[in-house]
Structure formats: structure tokens, C-alpha cells
């Protein structure tokens, strides 16, 4: 039987493991933490329960496909509920918008900002759907782009993918009101980028959410990790948790297994690495010239942003808030300038608040709510010390929320803080970046490390730092690509 070791039990690693096991491979997942899921984590304290990483789930079909490949129905493992409104947006001037998939409800709200933006918004949706049609088969749903992939796209369609202007420039060409521009620009942050730098092609993200909808797994986002783990075990995957991999063993240029932190050696015909690619090159692979050269290229790339998280147990019910909420900053360009250029946490951040107890009341004691508060922050630099600055920044975020009408400083009954340093330590994310290299360059999709290592035969990558990119559905797809490549190579050997 062909054997694979998957290093890391994040969502990408589990997706690859399930797919290899379904194809008859003997698969072992080795996860350094006690629990699987990686960035998708959960915490329960003082009667509250929070998801600690992802909170917005899109592209339901990606999960359905994985479970179907194993011959089972997603709905027997996971109840995905549609969330409506998708997100509630608040602006400093008092304006509010409930983003909805329903066009009639959305149009009525867009008109409050500028009646002409109703046409603009509809044109924008068609434009983003077009980008999805053109780029999806090449950049999202297939292997990393190859010359052959491009041949399937009619020549006249390529300019419509809009790679040469920024997201913001394209948004400006569609809508006039500053509110709508900020609302649509926010989708850049779904891949850790800036709307003022990321190529307009990334307007595809708005299509995925505004047309495809937002889903919430009953029980919490972590229910996805639990469902993946259950399916993995059912298809015969062995799981070793609480034990890290200290090295990928390479002999004659080929991966032949891994060494665990306790010195145990596991043999394998293929190794799938779910660890951040830069971290794997730095810590897990033999430091040959080729590996060091590749690593130098990886660390040179601008990282995507990180995040500063507050898990708050709040006394009282806040009827003005929905399940997902955004409190926008006053000056969006300045916020991204601070994150990506000045590399300091923004002094007037946009604050995201997710409250799963709105949908799952058991996540907080009666009369309370579980707030997950997330602010975009720069990837780790020497210039900002979270160990000393975190308490001050926490106060700044709470003050900012208070200015938006949500002053909970006297109502916090439980609290935890996660800084970019914690994110790096908990998951091996290089510089705490949430989504690998930043999407701010039009070349990101081409520069992303390939799912098949070019340096070590039999080594594959699955996860947010490899193709097709970060985010829960995307890393699920990356596990698919890594597994397919491993199976294809094994058949050729
Ligand atoms: C705060 C936050 C908010 C986010 N919000 C969203 C969102 O709303 N929607 C969305 O879709 N995505 C979101 N994301 C991104 C999403 O969580 C990630 O893209 C995705 O979960 C990453 O999965 P992965 O497969 O890359 O693995 P990771 O989650 O990075 O897991 C890698 C695993 O490898 C393990 N590992 C590392 N080194 C070793 C070793 N040496 N030996 C053994 N195991 C090892 C780690 O412990 C970890 O479990 C968010 C992320 C964060 C942190």
C-alpha cells in the first residue's frame, strides 16, 4: 500500500489526507497541537465559547465536493446555515448597510447612499461574476496555472479579468459613494491584502460572498474541523496529535518520511506538508543550497496581513448587532498605509465583530454574548513589540468600538487576547501572516509556491501559503491539488 505522512492537521492537511485515503493510500496525519484544525480553533471559558480563527465561510460547494469524493453527504456531518444579513456594516457618520444576497433588499439600501449606485452595484456584480467565470478554472479550481491552462481561455476574455488596475480603481469605476467604495474594497482583506494595491481581479471575492452567500456551521466554525476529522478517521486516516514533526527526511533528493520530535521515524512514499511553506523550508527540510535559495525567495515576498483578536464575554444583548458586523474606520487608505507601508497597527482600525451566540445561543450564558473581535494588523516586524504593546492596543480597539456606539468596557466578564505572535506560535504561520504572501501584487497567483515541491521529489504542499491561497475553502482545494499530484506521481513511478 502506498503510504503518505501529512505534516499538520489544519484544514488543508485534512483535505489532502481524506482524499489520499479515499484513493486507497495508508495515511498518517501528524499534528503538533493536541487538537486538529490549525488556524481554525475554538476556546471555551467561563461558560462562553468562541471560534478563534475563521468566522466567515463561503463556497459551500467546495465542502460538498470533498465529502462526495468520500461517498458521503456533507449534511450528515455538518449543518451549514445561511447567514442573513451576510454582514452588517456601520460607518462613523451613522450610516448602516445590511449586505444581503437578495438584490431587491440590497438595491433599496444602496440607493440611500446614491441612487446611481444601484446601477453601478448591479454592473459591479456582473463584472465580478465575469471575473469568476474567466479566472475560476485557471486560478481557483484547478492546479497551479500552467501554459496549458491559459489556452482554454479565449484571448478576448483575458483583459476582462482586469489584472492591471487596482481593486479600488475598478470599484471607483462602478460606484460613486464613499460608503459603497469602502464596502466593496473590504473584500481585499479576505486574502490579507489592500484594495489600494491588490489587482482588480480580486473583485472576484465579492462575487463569491455577495452572490454565493455566507454559511455558518451549526455548533461553530470549528464544527468544520470536527467534521473533517471524523471523515478522515472513517476513511482510515491515522491521526497522531500532540507530537510535532522535527524534520522531513530526504534521501537522494526524495522525501522518504518524517522524524517526530521524540525521534520516532515514520516512513512514507510521499509527504504532504500542511505547514506554512516558508516555515517548512526553514525548519523541516535539510538546508541544501537549493532549499536555502528557495527560502530566500519566499521570505522576500511581502506577507499578507496578520490579525489582533479579542475574545470577549459580554454581559447584555446588543440588538443593533448582527452575527457578522463591521465598524468601518474613518480613513480607509490611511489604515492600509499603516498596515502595509508603515507596518504598525492602525490607530483608527476597522473593527470586525462576530457573535455566534446570535445564531447559536448556547455559546454564551443567558443574557450574555460571545464577541470575537478582529482587527487587521501588520505581519510581524522588529519595529513593533506585541509583548509590551498589546494591552495599549486592546484599549485603543475598545475605545474605537465605543466611538461607534458599542461601549462594552464596563460589561466584559471574560476576555482573552490573541496577537500576531500567538498566531505565529500556535500554527507556524511565518510572521503571523494569516494568508501567506500578500495578494497586493498582480503576480501573487504566479509566485505562490507550487503544491508539488520543485526541490524534493515526493514532497507536496497543502494549505494557505500554497496554491490556490488562503481561506478555508481555498485550503480545502489546495489539499485536493496536493493529493491529486501525489497520486499522479505515484502512478508514474
Ligand atoms: C484570526 C483569523 C481569521 C480568519 N478568518 C477567516 C475567515 O473568516 N474565513 C476564511 O475562510 N478564512 C479565514 N482565516 C484563514 C483560515 O483560517 C486559514 O486560511 C486556514 O484555516 C489555513 O489552513 P491551512 O490548511 O493552511 O493550515 P493551518 O491552519 O495553518 O494549520 C497548519 C497546521 O500545521 C501544524 N504544524 C505546524 N508545524 C508543524 C510541525 N512541525 N509538526 C506537526 N504539525 C505542525 C499546525 O499546528 C497547524 O495545525 C482566518 C485566519 C485567522 C488566523
Mean pLDDT: 96
Structural class: alpha/beta
Count of beta strands = 19
Q: Looking at the structure, what is the overall shape?
A: globular
Low-confidence parts, pLDDT < 50 over ≥5 residues? none
- Count the DSSP helices: 16
Helix content: 25-40%
Main CATH class of the largest domain:
Alpha Beta
And the CATH topology of the largest domain? Guanine Nucleotide Dissociation Inhibitor, domain 2
Give the radius of gyration: 22 Å
Strand order of the largest sheet: 7-6-15-16-17-14-18
What is the total number of structural domains? 3
Amino- and carboxy-terminal Cα gap: 14 Å
CATH superfamily of the largest domain: Guanine Nucleotide Dissociation Inhibitor, domain 2
Strand portion: 15-25%
CATH architecture heading of the largest domain: 2-Layer Sandwich
Bound molecules: flavin-adenine dinucleotide
Largest sheet properties:
7 strands, mixed
